Amino acid sequence: MIAYITAGYPDIKATAKIASALAESGCDIIELGIPFSDPLADGATIQKASYQALQQGTTPQACLEAATDISRKIEIPLVFMTYYNPVLNFGLETFCESCVKAGINGLIVPDLPPEEGMELETITRKRDLDLIYLLAPTSTAERINEVAERSRGFIYLVSLTGVTGTRDILSPELEGFVKRVRQKAKQPLCVGFGISTTEHARRAASAADGVIVGSRLIQLIEEDVTLVALKSFTASLRKAIDSEKKTGR
What is the pLDDT of residue 160? Predict the structure, then answer.
């Protein structure tokens, strides 16, 4: 179970507290989003969180400092979700070196396609950072082959065409999509985008190796600053996924 949160939302001091709550509630990996002014892969919920974080002055450096704090408090892996522009502006070598020092284990860069990713890929491999590529239901066989050869850590499967956000239902094509990728890939396959209920998580877990939840968690943080609702929902996801894994494939 992979949980996405936006660094700096609702404020930078709360980020470590939220990450700890998610780890205690059963998450296996924390995906820490670096807020960006043009988050093209994200829907309204995460866009709003990113905007608020930016308004409060959350920078990539502040995210690195938050990651350092989090990595000292929890033992599960941390992955940055960022767009390429902040990384390029920071400096590829410097950013990756800083990530290692901060306890970051991998990077997800939605707007970096494999054909443009070799420079960052080379740098991350030298530092034992996993550069995680994405695949969508519209990905061609050629793209699936390329990502299967080059993605490290896991492959991020976008469950639908579109942006992040809560959905009422998942695509009826999800299982077929996962099966197509599994025929080529040896890495774990993790499904994200649109997963917002325990039933969604159970279905995704029945087909894939991992489940990624983000927008619904951001909504719960906004609705209940005590994080009680967040912990309860996360624990219910953990239970649903474990139940499916025991009875599924």
Answer: 67
Would you say residue 164 has pLDDT above 60? Answer: no
Q: Active site residue: 31, 121, 130, 244, which one?
A: 31
Helix, strand, or coil (residue 194): coil
- Put simply, whether the predicted model's pTM sits higher than 0.90 gets the answer yes
Ordered by where they begin, the domains of the chain are 2-247 (3.20.20.70)
Q: Which of 11, 24, 38, 42 is catalytic?
A: 42
Angle between helices 228-247 and 215-223 (to 10 degrees): 150
Cα dihedral sign for 64, 6, 148, 92?
A: negative
Residue 42 falls in the annotated catalytic set: yes
Instruction: Identify whether 93 is a catalytic site residue.
Output: no
Please give the Cα distance from 23 to 103 (Å, whole number).
15
pLDDT of residue 187: 97
15 CB-side CA count, 13 A? 30
- Helices 174-182 and 198-207 meet at what angle, rounded to 10? 30
Query: Dihedral of CA 134/85/212/26: which sign?
Result: positive
Q: Kindly write down the DSSP assignment for every residue of 33-101, as one continuous string.
A: EPP-S--TT--HHHHHHHHHHHHTT--HHHHHHHHHHHHHH--S-EEEE--HHHHHHH-HHHHHHHHHH
